[in-house]
Amino acid sequence: EASIDFDFLAEPNVINAPAIYSVRDTVQGWIDGNPNFGWVITTEGTDDWRLLASEVATQELRPMLEITYWNTGLPGDFNADGSIDLTDVNLLSRGMRGEILDGILDLNADGLFDMNDLTIWVHDLKQTWFGDANLDGQFTSADVVAVFQSGQYEDNIALNSTWADGDWNGDGDFTSRDFALAFQDGGYERGRRTVMAVPEPLGAVLLLAGLPLLTAFVRKRRP
To answer: Residue 65's pLDDT is what?
Structure first.
């Protein structure tokens, strides 16, 4: 059935009001022996919409089913530009927040867009750490400086942060939760993930201890 909010012309009946119209009943009503070429939906303007059937004489106007297979061969490349980058992780984060519904984001095929998918993207596909703001394969002090320079830490503006701004858990904001996730991941100053896969916690502990001072400094420098 189709919901109709405009004039609908279907011989031999004309319906001039919003309605729920049964496709089956309409076709069964066309019993005069003429071919059923389709429907015409007329609007208040000068244009109309034509829903044509396969019996229409002009072959180019017959409806066709077109299936496009889109596979770049690069898992995690959600926008199919040939690289796994910030755009892709931001798309996944939006999917986790329900802003995008696309099955390609479900990397573990469990029917959900969640932290499991984000972890697969970061660890297995990009082969880096949470906290790697510039996605150069390492989580270093340069990433920490960069995200604080974005000026979005605990700014109380909802959904204004991306991965490069410090949103590493996909909730759209740069908060202490992102730092907790990054340092629990254990990659701070450990080099590339494929080379240094076993973290030592000392560097992370020292940086966390100095984080309040750095935050205070950044806030003080804001205009």
So the answer is: 65
Position 6 scores a pLDDT of: 37
Residue 108 sits in the same domain as residue 158: yes
Residue 144 lies in a domain: yes
Burial of 136-175, coded b for 16+ CB within 10 Å and e otherwise, reads ebbbbeebbeebbebebbebeeeeebbbbbbbbbbbbbbb
* Contact indicator for 71, 58 with CB cutoff of 8 Å: no
- Shared domain for 162 and 116, answered yes or no, is yes
d(CA 168, CA 177): 9
Tell me which residue range forms the domain holding 15.
Answer: 2-61
* pLDDT tens by residue, 95-114: 999 999 888 899 999 999 99
3-state secondary structure of 117: helix
Q: Which comes out higher in pLDDT, residue 11 or 193?
A: 193
What single letter denotes the amino acid at residue 35?
P
Give the tokens for residue 25: 């009943």
pTM: 0.61
